[in-house]
User: What shape does this take?
Amino acid sequence: MYGIRSTTGRPAAGRRPKGFSAFACIWSSQLVSILTSGMSGFALTIWMYEQTKSATAMAAVQVFYVVPFLVMSFFAGPMIDRYNRKLMMALSDICAAIGTAAIFVAFLAGRPEIWMIYAAASLLGIGNSFQWPAFSATISLMVPKEQLGRVNGMMSLMEAGPSVFAPILAGALLPVMGITGILAMDIATFFLAVGTLLFVDVPSPARSADGARASGNIFKEAAWGFRYIFDRPSLLSLQLLFLAGNLFSGIGTNIVAPMILARTGADSVALGGVQTAFAIGGVAGGLIISAWGGFKHRSLGIAVGWVVQGLATCAFGLGSTFWVWAAFAALTSLASPLINASNQAIWQSKVPPDMQGRVFSARRLIAWIANPITPLIAGPLADYVLEPAMRDPVSGLSRLLGPAFGTGPGTGMGVIIAASGLLVVLSAAIAWSFRAVRDVESILPDHEVAVAAPAAAQGPAVNPAVDAGTVAAAPAMASTAP
Assistant: This one.
């Protein structure tokens, strides 16, 4: 259903960009689309706050996004492996375009409603459950495995870059174009993104032995994505490392804003500056990985990245001035592209392309388990335990930690952030102590080898003689690109 038609009636595939050129076209169009979507989100956030003055109403947007995302992620994986991957990638833009267009029409008619924002967030959650696993699964078909680290650095740049420029551009254009003008730009870029997918050549994956065994109804295929991970202790160990990292770093991340506001007397300029530093660090990290490609030993890149991020998070919690926070915020984000690009390259090399949709959806679903948990841990821990203890100059905790963190508002949250960073470092160190993580690239064969020798892939583990010895270690740690 996609593709330019030749005069003979067959797709003129030779005229369309292929390989890295096709990836670059899709990446560029998505970068523009994400940028304008960020501008729309910024403008709608301002409008929603003006209408409701309610943090709860605004936080509900995330709930309306996450719940459909999690539910649909279970089914998205097998659908990506079953159907045209161009269509699967386009679903995200189509869903977002429908929601944005409805809001645009409502603003034109002068009758926007809060529930429309919630409905659009739900549509975006459904669409995004397809976007990341479909695009990630397609990358390994477009570029050679030697370039996966560099290409995934570009993916990190695509995620981080718009967060720097979208608020700036939206703030500058909102007084000139109004919210309808920004929404119109956003809608136009959806057509650009979908049109680019129509134009480029996206290859279909060859059928693997594992893929053939996993075929069946959609529930069986979805469950196979989880089974594939749990049957391979090395991949499971990586997954557990990322789950632990996401959990501990998320606890600290959730209280960064209130800590800064508490320690600066509600200085919004300081908070905005630190948020910008986070974004700039992510962009710089993406640029570095795009040019460098990361460590040749990719599991080392994961471990080093987590350790750097954890130590920077700990230093951030210890800080008490804007420049200290900004410096370590940038360093924290700088490490993220190294972690994610290295991890993605491993999974894209090891998982057969015709199974990457369901396996990557399972990874994403597992990773997001930590998202609703971290605020429930961080908020009460700060409000009812650490903040009161650190504000009391005679308490044992404030006397023990006061020389390092100080006392008063925000210091209890600083303790939590620093502790979360140390737990991230500890998680990485424990994971690295297991051969399942250190040697994942040699323990598991690349998917080309598995396809070329299907007899070796018939068991539940690709290399049971080597990998089975690490089963006991597997449940200790975690993995998954965010």
User: Anything to note?
Assistant: The longest helix spans residues 148-199.
